[in-house]
Amino acid sequence: MERNAERAAPPALREDIGMIPRNSQPSRAADSHAGKGACSDVACKCCAALERAREGALFDALREYQSPLTPDIQEANLGASADGTMLKAKMGRDWKRMFEQLPGIGMGLMMTRNEAAILGRHKAFPALAFTAGGSKGADAESGLWWDFRGLGAAHAVHLRAGNRNIFGVEFTDARGEIIHRFTATQESNLEVFFNWARLHQACPAGDAAERVASRHALSFGKTGMVSACDAACRESGVGAIDVDADKDALISLAAACCKHGIEMEAAVSNDAVTQRVRFTPKSLLQVEEWWFVSNDTAGLHFLPEEFIRVEIVESIGGAGTQWSLHCHTADRESALVLACGNLEQYPAWCEILHAFA
């Protein structure tokens, strides 16, 4: 994992500024002034949010940073970069309660990642259904499955990037690697977001207990949650791997889907979350070693050289036999799964897929 730290995202993403670096995406971010000083723009959403936050706040531990994230956040929970462009507030670990209230923020950019793939889309955070013990949550319709036992920490974030202010929450695994992020956009309710952050901030006195509890946490498999395709394989008892495909098949498949307008279903998994997105890609770009296939609302980054094995897999489920492309890394089975997102296009999908075998 350390080996991939510097190239775990395209250049535009390495500083965690955004999720999908398309020309149409940055305008969605909650923009306003940059820097730590006051702003004279009466239309500035950041300053308006700061003013409202301070009106009802008892204290502001880092007032000099002029951030609507800091009022009523305990100083022990706050951290800032040396240049003041990045502020973070540590959240607690009552995952069920936190995730129950996330949908109130509204629309945002939702991103899931592992060492070889990043999948993001513009969508409101869905209302999850939880298991009895609250250790898992899912919304199949939205293609989101969570196993909270795989989470290490969460932080509310305020990032100043040029003339923009970007707010969101990022989730890390036990190693401290970012595995999921929800970023506010112009459509998001920022006041709800800041109230959410204040309500769910960590309790410093509980840190020791959390560390003890983490030592006794259950161990997890490398993939965490499984894709719907994997689940169908196991239920059917088939799941036979037929052929090996070259890693370049990923690039060729994405290009073919763009050219012929074929809807794809992409699933990216890590230790805590699996996100599945259906979209019809419109463009395929290369950014250094990474490739990026996307349309206006969703996008997939992938790093072909990180996959040690790429396989075409047959599975049997409710819709019958399905063929999909499973991409494995050294640390993770099915780190990325690509399948056909439209059954009417399935014959064309199979023709393209088997051309790589």
List the helices and strands and how they pair.
Blueprint: H1 45-55, E1 78-80, E2 86-90, H2 95-101, E3 107-113, E4 117-124, E5 129-130, E6 136-139, E7 144-147, E8 153-161, E9 164-172, E10 178-184, H3 190-199, H4 207-215, H5 228-236, E11 241-245, H6 248-260, E12 264-269, E13 273-279, E14 283-287, E15 290-294, E16 298-302, E17 307-317, E18 320-329, E19 336-340, H7 346-354
Antiparallel strand pairs: 1-2, 2-8, 3-4, 3-10, 4-16, 5-6, 6-7, 7-13, 8-9, 9-10, 11-17, 12-13, 12-19, 14-15, 15-16, 17-18, 18-19
Key terms:
357 residues; alpha+beta; Heme iron utilization protein-like fold; 2 domains; ten-stranded antiparallel sheet; nine-stranded antiparallel sheet; disordered N terminus
What number of domains?
Answer: 2
Order of helices and strands: HEEHEEEEEEEEHHHEHEEEEEEEEH
Number of helices: 7
Q: How many strands, which pairing sense, and closed or not: the largest β-sheet?
A: 10 strands, antiparallel
Low-pLDDT ranges: 1-38, 207-242
- β-strand amount: 25-35%
Detailed description of the structure:
The chain is an alpha+beta fold and 357 residues long. The protein folds into two domains: 2-215, Heme iron utilization protein-like fold; 228-354, HemS/ChuS/ChuX like domains (Heme iron utilization protein-like fold, 3-Layer(aba) Sandwich). Helix content is 19%, strand content 33%. The chain is built from seven helices and 19 strands. The protein has helices at 45-55, 95-101, 190-199, 207-215, 228-236, 248-260, 346-354; strands at residues 78-80, 86-90, 107-113, 117-124, 129-130, 136-139, 144-147, 153-161, 164-172, 178-184, 241-245, 264-269, 273-279, 283-287, 290-294, 298-302, 307-317, 320-329, 336-340. The strands form two sheets. The chain has a ten-stranded antiparallel beta sheet with strand order 1-2-8-9-10-3-4-16-15-14, with helices on one face. The longest helix is centred in the last third of the chain and has 13 residues, at 248-260.
